[in-house]
Amino acid sequence: MSLTRQLRDEHDQIRRRLREWDDLLVELERGVGTFAALRLKEEAQWVCSEVLPHLDAEESVVFPLLSEREPEGSVTLQRLSDDHAQLRELIAQLTELAWKRQLGTATNLQAQELLKTFRWRLLDHIAREDGALPPLLLQTLSADEDAELLRRWQEQIASAPSQPVPSPTLTDLNGRIHAWLDECLLRHLEALTALDLEGAKNWWRKFADALIAHAQVEDSVALPFTNDWATSLKAVSRPFLMPSTKALSECCDR
Ligand SMILES: [Fe+2]
Ligand SMILES: [Fe+2]
């Protein structure tokens, strides 16, 4: 096994997993809410536990040595590092979107667009690496150096935490949705105070949609063993929310 082979094998594994996203994209297109939300969370966890350590290992094991030994490859290495920065930004967005979708505060369309963008950028990046890194490694490293780098690479991958970005606990998730609900309500009240009735209506709708989605998600995903509580919340929230939305609409339509 050489470092080049290790890199190619990991790239192939990433490609195979990304091909499986076709199904997830179809599910999101069809609007199969709960199942797609769970798949999205799984894929975000996979990205954090498999793709991020791969990027980290390239940045700490491969890029520094190549940039030191092959100054003429600096433009290529800079481009690959820039790709990594963009990918990390998309991974952060994906992680956030996964928990928001689970709570019903992000749409299937948003998830679809982000998954497509991330997949396209990652495939484009590893294709660029497959073209650029093997020749640079072959002309730079002796067999012993290659073996040493491969050992460091494998050590780093093995010591990477399985999920560097922790999956939020149920308590975290509830805290986040409650913070979002608080913000919607606050913005609604601010708009009312400013006599911005259209803004107040929009924030109230967001609040109502998020609260109902939250109750539905808790019903089916987050709190499967406390259905009585979730049912009670829905029973309480619907009569409370609907007349208010209607009253605001009427008010704004006048
Ligand atoms: Fe990379
Ligand atoms: Fe790579």
In short:
The protein is mainly alpha-helical.
What does this structure look like?
The protein has nine helices and no strands. By secondary structure, it is an all-alpha fold. Helix 2 (21-30) runs antiparallel to helix 5 (108-140), helix 3 (33-69) runs parallel beside helix 5 and helix 7 runs antiparallel to helix 8. The longest helix is centred in the first third of the chain and has 37 residues, at 33-69. Mean pLDDT is 82; it is low at 223-254. The protein binds fe (ii) ion (FE2) (2 copies). The site of one fe (ii) ion has 6 residues, from helix 1, helix 3 and helix 5. Residues 7, 11, 54, 58, 126, 129 line the site of one fe (ii) ion.
The largest sheet is:
none
Beginning-to-end CA distance, first to last residue: 74 Å
Individual helix count: 9
Please give the CATH architecture of the largest domain: Up-down Bundle
Going by CATH, the homologous superfamily of the largest domain would be: nmb1532 protein domain like
Identify the quaternary structure here.
single chain
Structural class from helices and strands?
Answer: mainly alpha
Total number of beta strands: 0
Q: Could you name the CATH topology of the largest domain?
A: Four Helix Bundle (Hemerythrin (Met), subunit A)
What would you call the shape?
A: elongated
